[in-house]
Design brief:
Structural class: mainly alpha
Radius of gyration: 26 Å
Distance between the termini: 63 Å
Strand content: under 5%
Number of strands: 0
Largest sheet: none
Shape: elongated
Low-confidence stretches: none
Number of domains: 2
Oligomer: single chain
C-alpha cells in the first residue's frame, strides 16, 4: 500500500484515494498526522546554532577582536 508524505497509508487506486480524501474532508475519517521529528525541523525552529549562537555568547570586545583577526588574515595574503 502506498504511503503519503508523512508516512500515512493511502489506497493504491485513484478512485479509492478520492473516496478516502472525501471522507477526510467530510469528517468521516480523521487524518492521522504525525508531529515532525527533531531531524525534520529546520534550524530556525530549533533555535540558533553554530556561529550565530557563538556570536550571541561573546562580549562585544571579544567579537571585535575576532573580526579584526579575520580581516587581517584575509588581507595579509593578498597580492
Amino acid at each position: 500500500m502506498p504511503k503519503g508524505p508523512q508516512g500515512q497509508k493511502r489506497p493504491a487506486d485513484v478512485i479509492g484515494n478520492a473516496v478516502h480524501v472525501m471522507r477526510i474532508a467530510t469528517g468521516e475519517v480523521e487524518e492521522d498526522v504525525k508531529t515532525p521529528s527533531k531531524r525534520a525541523m529546520t534550524a530556525a525552529e530549533m533555535g540558533k546554532k553554530g556561529g550565530e549562537a557563538r556570536a550571541d555568547k561573546l562580549s562585544k570586545r571579544k567579537l571585535k577582536e575576532i573580526a579584526r583577526a579575520a580581516a587581517k588574515a584575509r588581507w595579509t595574503n593578498r597580492k
